[in-house]
Structure formats: C-alpha cells, structure tokens
C-alpha cells in the first residue's frame, strides 16, 4: 500500500504488520470503547460459558488465515469473494455504522441514509481485509479466553503471533444478534484510534453533509480495490 495511505492511520497503523494493519484499524474505529476499556467488567455477571462468541472469532480467523496462505495466487477480487461470507456473518454492521458518527448525527439521518451508511461500511471493511491480507510469512492466530463485559457483551481475547516480532493482542467485543454472536469492535494491543476517526467522520458530516461523507468512504473503497 502506498505510504500516504499507511501514514494516515498514525501510530496504531504502524504498530501492526502489513497483513493485518488496516483491517484492524477499519474495525477498531467503529465502536465506542467506554464500556470495555474505561469501565471494569460487570462483577455481578455470571461467567460466560457460551462458546458461540469464541466460535465466531475463530471462524473469522480461519478465513483470514486461509486467504493469507493462498494470497500469492489470489487477486484482490478473489480474496474479496472468499472473505465476503465470513465478514458479513461475523460483524454487526448495524451497530458499527451507528457508532462511527455522533449519536445526535445518527438520529438525524433518514432510514435510507442509515442503510447506505451500513452498506458502505460493510463494503469498506471487506475491501480493507481483502487488500491487506495479501501474503503469508508464518503468522498464527490463537484464542485464549472470553469474559462478560457490560451491556450484555462479551470480550474474546486472542493473539496474532508473528515470526521474529512481538505478538499482537487482539481483543474482540461481541454482542448477540438474535441467536448469534457478532463482532462490534476489535482492539489491537488495547489501542483504538476511534476518537480520531469519529472526529473526522463527524466533522465531514457536519461541514459537508452526508453525501460527501459517503463519497469519501467510497473513494477509500475504490483505492483499496485497485488490484
């Protein structure tokens, strides 16, 4: 990826290897972390024995790993096609799209605009992963545990092990959507640039309007999709 696009994600982007950087950033910016990072877990909550959340995370990791292992023979469009089903069923894009702008701005959007925002972030996330997971150098995912956090969510702790580098801790926040657990946030080594991105997108929405915000995101998708 060109240096200009890498630099825009700052320290958080540079901390991660190329095969995972933007993908994690694209997700980590999407959901406020207060209930997970700045508040302790709900001590009154029972231990989370539902394996569904871990199953969601591990299925996602397996799909990423498979694409990484075959990335040298896959074009962007092939990687996108392979990842689309697992990305679509692993993430709660309704919650994600509502969290990327301020609560007051989200309330002002029409139902049609909310649907467009959700679809745009779905495509941006998919394009991001397809762009970034384009090689393999011995990386391995490992899942360790899960525990309940506030608001009925659960936190799954895992790690990306990278040869000759420090491992990256990946914490997934999930919530139930019907009978399934869906990812609503990803933290890498406890870091998220959520505040920066929310400020950026809220500023575009406030000063230039909804159509300009969507145009900016569509431009990012187009850049990521250039094979």
Shape verdict: globular
CATH architectural name: Roll
Largest sheet properties: 4 strands, antiparallel
CATH topology: Nuclear Transport Factor 2, Chain: A
The CATH homologous superfamily? Tgt2/MlaC
Percentage of residues assigned to helices:
40-55%
| SS elements, strand count | 4
Q: How much beta, percentage-wise?
A: 15-25%
Class per helix and strand makeup: alpha+beta
Low-pLDDT residue spans: 1-47
Give the number of domains. Answer: 1
Give the termini distance in whole angstroms. Answer: 11 Å
Helices, by number, come to 10
Overall pLDDT? 79
The largest beta-sheet arranges its strands as 1-2-3-4
Query: What is the string of SSEs from the N terminus onward?
Result: HHHHHHHHEEEEHH
Name of the level-1 CATH class: Alpha Beta
Specify Rg, calculated over alpha carbons: 17 Å
What's the SSE blueprint?
Blueprint: H1 3-7, H2 10-15, H3 21-28, H4 52-70, H5 76-90, H6 93-99, H7 103-108, H8 111-132, E1 140-148, E2 154-161, E3 168-177, E4 180-188, H9 194-208, H10 210-225
Antiparallel strand pairs: 1-2, 2-3, 3-4
Can you summarize this structure?
The protein is an alpha+beta fold. 52% of the residues lie in helices and 16% in strands. It has one domain: Nuclear Transport Factor 2, Chain: A (Roll), CATH 3.10.450.
How would you sum up this structure, described in words?
With 227 residues, the chain is an alpha+beta fold. It has helices spanning 3-7, 10-15, 21-28, 52-70, 76-90, 93-99, 103-108, 111-132, 194-208, 210-225; strands at residues 140-148, 154-161, 168-177, 180-188. It has a 4-stranded antiparallel sheet. The chain is globular and about 45 Å long. Residues 1-47 have low confidence and may be disordered.
């Amino acid at each position: 990826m060109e240096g200009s696009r890498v630099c825009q994600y700052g320290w958080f982007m540079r901390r991660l290897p190329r095969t995972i950087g933007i993908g994690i950033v694209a997700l980590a910016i999407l959901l406020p972390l207060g209930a997970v990072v700045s508040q302790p877990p709900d001590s009154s909550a029972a231990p989370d024995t539902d394996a569904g959340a871990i199953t969601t995370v591990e299925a996602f990791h397996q799909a990423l790993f498979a694409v990484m292992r075959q990335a040298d023979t896959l074009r962007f469009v092939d990687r996108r096609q392979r990842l689309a089903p697992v990305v679509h069923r692993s993430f709660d894009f309704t919650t994600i799209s509502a969290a990327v702008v301020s609560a007051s701005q989200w309330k002002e959007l029409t139902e049609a605009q909310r649907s467009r925002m959700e679809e745009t972030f779905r495509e941006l996330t998919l394009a991001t992963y397809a762009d970034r997971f384009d090689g393999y150098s011995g990386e391995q995912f490992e899942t360790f545990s899960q525990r309940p956090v506030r608001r009925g969510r659960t936190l799954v702790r895992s790690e990306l092990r990278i040869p000759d580098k420090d491992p990256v801790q990946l914490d997934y926040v999930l919530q139930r959507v019907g009978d399934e657990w869906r990812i609503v946030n990803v933290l890498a080594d406890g870091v998220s640039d959520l505040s920066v991105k929310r400020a950026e997108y809220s500023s575009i929405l406030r000063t230039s309007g909804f159509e300009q915000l969507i145009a900016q995101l569509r431009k990012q998708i187009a850049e990521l999709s250039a094979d």
